[in-house]
Design a protein that fits this description.
Chain lengths: 234, 383
Amino acid sequence: MEPLIQINAATKSFQKNKETITPLDSLSLDVAKGEFLSLMGPSGSGKTTLLNLIAGIDSPSAGEIRIHGRDIAKLSRAQLTRWRAEHVGYIFQLYHLVPILSAYENVELPLLLGKWTKAERKAKVMAALELVGLSDRADHRPSELSGGQEQRVAIARAIVHDPALLVADEPTGDLDRESADAILKLLSTLAEEHNKTIIMVTHDPKAAAAAHRALQLEKGQLVTSGHLLNHMPT
Amino acid sequence: MLPFSYALRNLFRDPARLAQTVGGSAIVVLLLVAAVALNQGMDAVLSSSGSPRNVILMGKGSEESIQRSEVHLEAEAIAATSIRGIQEQLGAPSISGEIFYQAPLRTRSGVEEQALLRGVLENALLVHRSVSLREGRFPQSGEIMVGHLAHRKLGVDPSETAIGQSLHFENAEFTIVGIFEAPGTVLESEVWFDRNDLATLSQRDSLSSITIRLAPTADFDDVEVFTFQRNDLELAAIREDHYYDKLGTFYKPIQVMTWVTAALVAAGAIFGGLNTLYAAFAARVKEMATLQSIGYTRKALFVSLIQESLLATLCGTLLALVLAYFLLDGQSVPFSIGTFTLTLTPSVLATGVITGILLGTLGTLPPAYRCLAPTLPTALRSD
């Protein structure tokens, strides 16, 4: 099966105070379509840098990042923005919901970039909220939701435009255990039942255990090639 | 693009900031509107006060100011018979020898204020065509008529310059028998005396100037030639509109000061507003980055920030224009040679609206740039 993500010798480096910092050093990795992959490692190991490169938030200094066979490292900033709008859903640790918008309006944001009609948008938003179990909270603002509910709205926002790839940066890092478990279950469902490819950065071994595969990074390099934790998609 | 409602709702995210932005832009717009109205009003009254068909004969060497000018009494009759092309009305030449004097007048309530006094005979109405009696009649000896804005120059209530009231000059009492208007000219602030009364009280045996109205076919050169031919009268001729133009240059420094003052206060308000916007946008760096990660372009976010600022500054502009309507429009402002009226003309209003738009757009550029400039990974990590 052809991998959805192919990373070949990706390096990210930048200058700081005349010193070259290399958060990611010639890293190579393949991720299959529908795979739920967790990235672990100490702070500064390059987890978030790798996540940002895969999500098209950042560009590598060298190497290739192929998603669906297309090297996104070669895309301009404007092209990357368009590409993200179509192919990526990003889930943040602190949800990053727009506080002045309702749950419905937050989830609708990615759809406003497409050519859907208002009725189509409504159907998609309500379906996404239904999937995360919050269709009854559509009119609530983020301040009126619990942390777990906010993260579920953020997940609905990430999946509403049906991207193939979901990236999550410590999605359970700010939640209590019960809410974290619910989020992890939701992510597993998205991978297994909706065939989403999910890359998740986490410090939490229990969260990592929810993934199909967990990788360990240190000093910008993979220190383990990953081990199978759960059933991989076939 | 982000929906317009996003910009609209962001306005109300922080009511204190909204109040600061609206208030700051209202101050800037109101100041500029006031400065433009002030300068336009002064320019308008000076340009309307002089007629291109009128020529003023003044004492040679005192062309800068009628008040300092001295003209022989007999020069009026000589000019009337010697200059070709003087407009005639019912056989009478349109020529008016006048005494112009600035001195304190005392009102019934005891207010004593500098006033603009003009000693005239009835033929003054032949040359000052803009003057018309609003009430009453032309004054005889012991009487005066006042321009309908004279009370502003005197700083008293209009009731103190109404017909039947009296004004005191040099211990003599003068009864007001007429109120005149001369729309848009400095004459409306003047107090007109019988010429002989003013000559006696001011102890003058000369005129200040002779104003001549030329026939449409006549030429200014005819008057100038007369001044050369009658060198003994020591006269200089100047077109009335040119005289007021020259007065306008005298007031230019005051107009510049108006602009400088408005600019300085406006600059303070602009910097305050910029500071508010910097703080407001800095708090939303992460939100902007989130929207970029979703797929919104920087251009779309920039447009949304501009929309938001424009909404606030245009609210401020609207507030400023409403305030200007109630506080400035129609207000008469006295200055040394008369009174002018502040008017919210289309160009004044346009200045206000353009200022509001510039504040909302150009003023948003630096804080918006600072908000959108960081790279996405940096912005997403910001606090």
